[in-house]
Design brief:
Layout: E1 2-7, H1 13-27, E2 33-40, H2 52-64, E3 69-71, H3 79-82, H4 86-101, E4 108-111, H5 120-125, E5 128-132, H6 143-153, E6 157-164, E7 174-181, H7 186-197, H8 203-210, H9 215-240, E8 244-247, E9 250-253, E10 256-257, E11 262-263, H10 265-271
Helix pairs in contact: 1-2, 9-10
Length: 272
């Protein structure tokens, strides 16, 4: 049985849906996994806390499955250091995190909506997978930065991937990914609408005015977000079934190092 360590900030329905889906598939006998613990970087007593209700729903779900819930508030931890040296703060918080989870054994860590960068020592000590909202050869950065880069550069292919967490942020080996076209169908009309706006405004002005509500941006985000859950579950299953493993931060299949990530686009599209 594959033992998972689950890391999540628990800030919305996406976090709950992914956690619930993994547990349901475990109960159905479709995933041979066990979640050893859930770690959250909030304790939900912080102020201000706009996600308190959402996070409490996540906490209640974890407890209902009788899975240990570990919390360590990032907002309360060493604010003096956060204000002066965030790299040093991250390293110190990493020490706290490792101390909190040291008694729980796990084979693979899943960063499921975990909104803090992992420190280098934690990346070195554990095998962990992170979801990145781009194709393996796509842009780096947050999902907002990725999508605006795609639009700016007129890149007509988008996707999401799961990659190994390493010291080089967002640059660990890609394990699995799925892709989708952002031209054709509804997309063509959205590109035309954007082009009309670009006749009188710069892209930077459109970003400042509309932000994530810009229709083309919003469509790309929606089509990527709905693929995150099935891609993550399919990836966990590859590990649980023993088809792949991680050695020295590299991916192996049947003892052979993988040179390319798995393309799970067909499987993911079929599930949505």
């Amino acid at each position: 049985m594959l033992k998972l360590g689950w890391f999540s900030t628990g800030r919305g329905p996406g976090s709950r849906n992914l956690f619930r889906t993994v547990m349901e598939k475990k109960e159905q006998g479709l995933l041979d996994v066990d979640i050893s613990f859930v770690f959250c970087n909030w304790d939900n007593k912080e102020e201000p806390n706009s996600k308190r209700e959402q996070r409490q729903m996540f906490f209640d779900m974890v407890k209902a499955y009788n899975i240990p819930l570990i919390t360590a508030s990032w907002k309360k931890f060493r604010p003096d250091l956060w204000n002066t040296d965030q790299i040093a703060w991250r390293n110190e918080y990493g020490k706290l995190l490792r101390e909190e989870i040291k008694d729980y054994k796990f084979d693979l860590g899943i960063l499921a909506g975990y909104m803090l960068w992992m420190d280098d020592d934690t990346c070195d000590e554990y095998n962990m997978l992170n979801l990145h909202p781009a194709l393996p050869d796509g842009p780096k950065g947050t999902w907002e930065e990725v999508i605006w880069t795609l639009i700016k550069e007129r890149t007509y292919k988008q996707g999401i991937m799961l990659h190994i967490c390493t010291k080089e942020w967002d640059r660990g080996d890609a394990l699995t990914y799925c892709g989708f076209s952002i031209i054709g169908g509804e997309y063509d009309e959205l590109w035309k609408q954007l082009d009309e706006k670009l006749k009188t405004s710069t892209l930077e002005e459109i970003i400042a005015k509309e932000g994530t509500n810009e229709p083309l941006f919003k469509k790309i985000r929606e089509d990527g977000a709905k693929r995150e859950l099935p891609l993550t579950v399919s990836t966990i299953k590859l590990f649980a079934d023993g088809k792949i493993c991680i050695k020295n931060k590299r991916l192996y299949e049947n003892g052979k190092k993988l040179n390319d990530a798995y393309d799970l686009s067909k499987e993911v599209d079929a599930s949505i």
